[in-house]
Design goal:
By secondary structure, the chain is mainly alpha-helical. It contains 5 helices and 2 strands; from the N terminus they run E-E-H-H-H-H-H. The N terminus is likely disordered.
């Protein structure tokens, strides 16, 4: 007796369903995107931890209840090093979140796998370099060059997505 698996649209015999295939993971470009995007999200989490550690070391807390727990209200204050970490983290949010959207859509446009990998790799290296330059106060223009280089693949992916949409519209 053959029945239909409603999720996969495949026929299977008896009670044994075939192992489902994950078509997304069969996409080499999407696998590459997942690797780099996951590493970038982990980097963002690490930057949040670094910010917290700098707050503790500098005794510079944003909230009175945190300052009270660590010595008193005089520690509810800003600190240039904490603010630098926060700006680096905010910059990640402004740039990595759009990359996550663009890269995921771009992955399904059937781009050349090497070209797609290059897009993801350039963005990843640019963002890592940008964060290192920000936190270590490296001389200008290292940070701004890293930022600009990381934007190039995003612009490329955005344009390719737009061209695909316009082409089928």
């Amino acid at each position: 007796m053959h029945t239909r698996n409603p999720l996969l649209g495949q026929a299977f015999k008896g009670d044994r369903a075939p192992a489902p295939t994950n078509r997304m993971m069969d996409n080499e470009v999407f696998q590459s995107f997942l690797l780099y995007s996951t590493m970038l999200v982990i980097k963002m989490y690490l930057l949040a931890v670094i910010t917290g550690q700098v707050r503790l070391r500098k005794k510079a807390f944003a909230n009175p209840e945190d300052a009270l727990k660590h010595g008193g209200l005089q520690y509810c204050r800003t600190d240039p090093d904490v603010e630098r970490c926060r700006r680096a983290h905010w910059n990640d949010l402004e740039n990595i979140l759009p990359f996550l959207f663009l890269g995921s859509i771009y992955s399904f446009l059937d781009p050349n796998p090497f070209v797609a990998w290059l897009h993801f790799f350039i963005f990843f290296v640019g963002r890592i370099t940008h964060t290192i330059a920000y936190l270590l106060k490296l001389r200008a223009p290292i940070r701004s060059v890293a930022y600009t280089i990381a934007q190039l693949p995003c612009v490329s992916m955005a344009l390719q997505i737009l061209w695909e949409v316009i082409d089928i519209w």
